Amino acid sequence: MATNRLPEGSPSDPPAATDTRTDGASRLTFGVEEEFLLLRRDGGVAAVAPQVLRALPDDVRVHPEWMQYQVETVTGVCTDLSALAAEMSAGRRKVARVASTWGAVLVSVGTPPFGVPGLAALTDDVRYRLLRERFPEAAADVVTCGCHVHVGVPTRDLGVEVLNRLRAWLPLLLALSCNSPMWRGGDSRQESFRRQLVTRWPSATVPPRLDDAAAYDDALAERIAVGEAVDAAGVYWFARLSPRYPTVEIRIADTGLTVADTMLHAALCRALVATALDEAVARIPAAPASEPLLAASLVNAGRYGLDALVVDPRTGALARGRAVLDHLVEHVGPALLSAGDRSAVSALLAQRQRQGSGAARQRVLRKRLDRTAFVAALAAACLHDPFGRMRRRPTPSKAPQVPAQRAPTDLDAS
Fold first, then answer.
1. Residue 175 CB-half CA count within 13 A
2. What's the CA gap between 27 and 77, in Å, rounded?
């Protein structure tokens, strides 16, 4: 296997930070892991990931995934949002180019829109086989694609402090990222059906509130001891300390339909971590969050996206997701400014408001298009250049056009 394809647990080439300075978000490095589907042009899955991985050039950081019709790309360590976006764009294009030689297209959606072949397409991997044997019900159906954002933290103890402050924001982050309405050829009637699927893994929950890294390790060991995971990497908390890197790993989001969707999520995640670090150092206590309210908020966010009632960490009460998003932007404003991301995030949020969620965009396209055209539109969205409009202002976007309202005006990522 070529050096660009990192095995699970590899310590080399991490997707996020090793810089341990804490003086502002501008010092925090970050990286992104994005999971994708490989589909035939008619929407069927294309179990050609092994062939695609072997054929990719060594400058593409990519992993095999759970099924042979999935791949995961990994960025390098980044400090700049535009550099992160450029890496994501390049990775998507390179994988898509090789996949096309095997009759497949790369799409970035949280769940397969049409049928899946079950465990017949499971990737041949010792760890995956163990998971299949330990959790047969989850293994058969949980085929999802998520986006994992890594942000560097100075110490594991501070990382736990960060997690304590992130917990209550996780429903809002899910609501913002929803991109998985389709399942087995129909509409699931949820914005993120992925959320419902991943919770079939028994450890896929909000992380517990803990005092320090020792308590965190004890909690991990307990999850393994009671049979909820096979190892530390298999404790699928929606935010956790990375088992491989000196980072906090935020795992709640559906994979982004476009690079711009992932840019927005990654920028907000880094700003949240920076803000949490500042609060931890200043000994500002983490806001308490009701566990039942958090659990209900995640269900609501998966069903209704930003229209859902979710917990507002600033008040501890339920509020509409759109109002909580405004509070989030205000909460992390200084960190966005420090990182130089404020104007980019403002533009990305305005675009998100115009276009609607990835789920809304998928629904509009599916109503208009047959299967083949729908898959082609998803593939175009996956590869759309987030900087294209800035470089080609006089030229209209090449992305597929869709009606306004809750749906996007286009699938543009700029």
1. 30
2. 12
For 306, the 3-state DSSP assignment is helix
- Note whether 29 and 36 are within 8 A (CB): no
Give CA–CA dist 131/321, Å, rounded: 35
- Tokens coding 30: 């970050």
CA dist., res. 203 & res. 225, Å (int): 12
* Gyration radius from the chain CA atoms: 20
Residues 6+ apart with CB under 8 A from 125: 8, 64
Report DSSP state, residue 183.
E
Q: Which three-class secondary structure state does DSSP give residue 62?
A: strand
Is 203 strand, coil or helix? coil
How far, in whole angstroms, is CA 249 from its chain's centroid? 10
Query: Which DSSP category does 122 fall into?
Result: B
Query: Tens digits of per-residue pLDDT, 75-134?
Result: 999 999 999 999 999 999 999 999 999 999 999 999 999 988 889 999 999 999 999 999
Concatenated DSSP letters for 310-358?
Answer: EE-TTTSSEEEHHHHHHHHHHHTHHHHHHHT-HHHHHHHHHHHHHH--H
Helix (H, G, I), strand (E, B) or coil at 63: strand
**What are the residue ranges of helices labelled H in 151-212?**
156-166, 170-177, 193-198
Classify 78 as helix, strand or coil: strand
Helix (H, G, I), strand (E, B) or coil at 161: helix
CA distance linking residue 327 with residue 324, whole number of Å: 5
| Token pair in block for residue 387 | 């900087």
Q: Is residue 21 over pLDDT 80?
A: no
**Domain annotation for the chain: domains and CATH numbers:** 25-391 (3.30.590.20)
pLDDT 10s digits, 213-264: 999 999 999 999 999 999 999 999 999 999 999 999 999 999 999 999 999 9
